[in-house]
Amino acid sequence: MNMDKKFIKKYETDAFNHDGLNGYAYVPNGVSVAVSNPLNEKMPGANPEQLLGLSLSTCMGATLQAIEKENNLPHRAQVHVHVTMVKGTAGLEFLVDARVRIPHISHAQAEDFVHQAEKRCPVSKLLSGSENYTIHVVDEFEPTHQGVID
Amino acid sequence: MNMDKKFIKKYETDAFNHDGLNGYAYVPNGVSVAVSNPLNEKMPGANPEQLLGLSLSTCMGATLQAIEKENNLPHRAQVHVHVTMVKGTAGLEFLVDARVRIPHISHAQAEDFVHQAEKRCPVSKLLSGSENYTIHVVDEFEPTHQGVID
Predict the structure, then answer these.
(1) Which Pfam families does its entry note (chains A, B) (predicted)?
(2) Which domains does chain B possess?
(3) Rounded to a whole number, what is the distance in Å from the CA of B90 to chain A's nearest CA?
(4) Between chain A and chain B, how many beta carbons pairs sit less than 8 Å apart?
(5) How far apart (Å, rounded) are the C-alpha atoms in residues B124 and A76?
(6) What is the pLDDT of residues B8-50, one digit of tens each?
(7) Would you say the C-alpha torsion B3, B5, B10, B12 has a positive or negative sign?
């Protein structure tokens, strides 16, 4: 961490995992989620891929909501994050692809909003150093695919 | 994304946010979570900071669980992720500090396990390009602080 940076702290929180993939992860005095192994589809609960997608989609959605408001527009932006677990020469990796649809503005303006949001959304900033992270504007969402890939 | 990389796809999933910070984020056919603004403590639900912490703590916890198993040890590793929202010259950022306690092995062996886990856990790999991400071994957890910072 670059300690030379000057920050004003605004908010802090915690998330705990003591159970690995067999139990719960939780926020003290906050939400608790059952967690599960993505490769065991019989297990209920959320896996790290889904929790990351929920974090990024909510952060980008909230940032776009703020940008829409600044432009006197109602909130219509939709963010779908597709996470793929892949195995390569460096072991397991996640590919994170964020797809943004903003139906009430032009494609060009949507591109501008997403470009602004990328630079403001803290989760997007955290991922921006990874070549596995992509974000783009779509005019319509394509049907999604989910589950274990044989 | 570096398309020259060769990957085998193992699993894929989606997370959707249409509501910004006022409603729900969800996995199609999976978990749904109420989302909330971290700066409004009266709102129930999880915020992007907490969802990211749940993802990272679960990914690191699961990776450490695998490493413990490879060493014929029961799973005792505990991962606490502290996320701080800060405001700096580049706008809002998250500082992500993962703290790992593995009570049934020595501090030196815990350092070795965490060093291995950092290189294997896909969420840790995604964050490793950010100077805002840190991870370290602790012998005991300190009391945590949560909430809006005035």
Answers:
(1) OsmC (PF02566)
(2) 10-46 (no CATH), 48-137 (3.30.300.20)
(3) 8
(4) 330
(5) 32
(6) 999 999 999 999 999 999 999 999 999 999 998 778 899 999 9
(7) negative
